[in-house]
């Protein structure tokens, strides 16, 4: 190596030390600081051409501030800590523009499936039902006797969370697992920490062996690991998908139910898996998946776990 090359490398290292490169958003690949200033410039650009435009903008801003204030007042102190903690921990992973696209779920939500509810009356009951805060889907007779106790989710299923999950699952963006794990761990702490019951085992929803070979990993297992490591809760990968089905997102609710009726079972091939089965009997377990759409998949898994002796089955997903 020549003296000039060595000197250049030393100067570059010194420059990186004095002026470190800003973190890059793992989703949009923009500098996190650049995205912040872009957001600021968008909010404060486009001077109004007329007084009417100025008045309209003032009214819009006032309305947005009033809505934000009402929403903030509605949050519990626990939810405020959850949102603040999540934003801070994601600061080095997602820029403010990408983060704002995530609609993290806070109350009011359906107490059965975890869906955001916008039609809650002042008395805390949803329209069309006498049950407190239960959505229209969960009062249908066909879902009255589901095998899981209740489900919770981190975010509403929208374009932002869909892009985040798809980039990770289908486009090889393995570095997105860390922000997904952070979101999952924080929503776990919001809903399942300091409860009358204690989650004793984490169980990821399995992939069929063909899809696992195609993808190379099970996303439900990967997003479970941070919860397991932080809260010292064992993961029991004991479920097996016996039938290779098409992607459930392309099917109707009736088709999903029919295709998943006998799609899962408990593994029993070796002593290690039998030991894992012992981690389910008479225990409260948490079933983990990435997306809850109709609840058919997690309900089928929960039914198998109940047959295997689980005391209670709860569900946690990234998106609902």
Automatic annotation (TrEMBL):
Gene3D superfamilies: 3.40.50.2020
Residue ranges of every copy of the Phosphoribosyltransferase domain listed in the record: 220-319
Family label: Belongs to the ComF/GntX family.
Protein name as it appears in the record: Phosphoribosyltransferase domain-containing protein
Family matches, as InterPro entries: ComF/GntX_DNA_util-trans, PRTase-like, PRTase_dom
Pfam families: Pribosyltran (PF00156)
């Amino acid at each position: 190596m020549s003296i000039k090359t060595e000197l250049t490398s030393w100067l570059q290292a010194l420059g990186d030390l004095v002026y470190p490169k800003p973190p890059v958003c793992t989703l949009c690949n923009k500098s996190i600081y650049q995205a912040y200033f872009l957001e600021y410039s968008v909010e404060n650009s486009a001077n109004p051409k007329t007084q009417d435009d100025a008045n309209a903008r003032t009214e819009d801003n006032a309305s947005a501030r009033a809505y934000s204030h009402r929403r903030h007042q509605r949050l519990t102190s626990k939810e405020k800590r959850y949102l603040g903690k999540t934003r801070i921990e994601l600061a080095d992973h997602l820029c403010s523009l990408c983060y704002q696209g995530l609609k993290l779920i806070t109350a009011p939500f359906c107490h059965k499936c975890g869906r955001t509810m916008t039609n809650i009356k002042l008395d805390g009951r949803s329209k069309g039902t006498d049950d407190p805060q239960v959505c229209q889907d969960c009062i249908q007779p066909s879902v009255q006797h589901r095998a899981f106790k209740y489900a919770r989710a981190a975010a509403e299923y929208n374009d932002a969370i869909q892009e985040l999950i798809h980039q990770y699952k289908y486009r090889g963006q393995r570095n997105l697992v860390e922000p997904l794990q952070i979101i999952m761990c924080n929503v776990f702490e919001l809903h399942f920490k300091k409860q009358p019951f204690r989650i004793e085992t984490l169980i990821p929803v399995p992939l069929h062996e063909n899809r696992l070979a195609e993808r190379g990993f099970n996303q439900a297992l990967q997003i479970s690991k941070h919860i397991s490591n932080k809260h010292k809760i064992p993961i029991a990968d004991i479920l097996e998908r016996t039938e290779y089905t098409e992607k459930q997102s392309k099917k109707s609710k009736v088709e999903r139910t029919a295709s998943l009726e006998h799609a899962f079972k408990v593994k029993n091939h070796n002593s290690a898996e039998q030991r894992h089965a012992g981690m389910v009997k008479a225990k409260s377990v948490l079933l983990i998946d990435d997306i809850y759409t109709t609840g058919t998949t997690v309900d089928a898994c929960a039914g198998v776990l109940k047959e295997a002796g689980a005391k209670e089955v709860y569900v946690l997903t990234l998106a609902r």
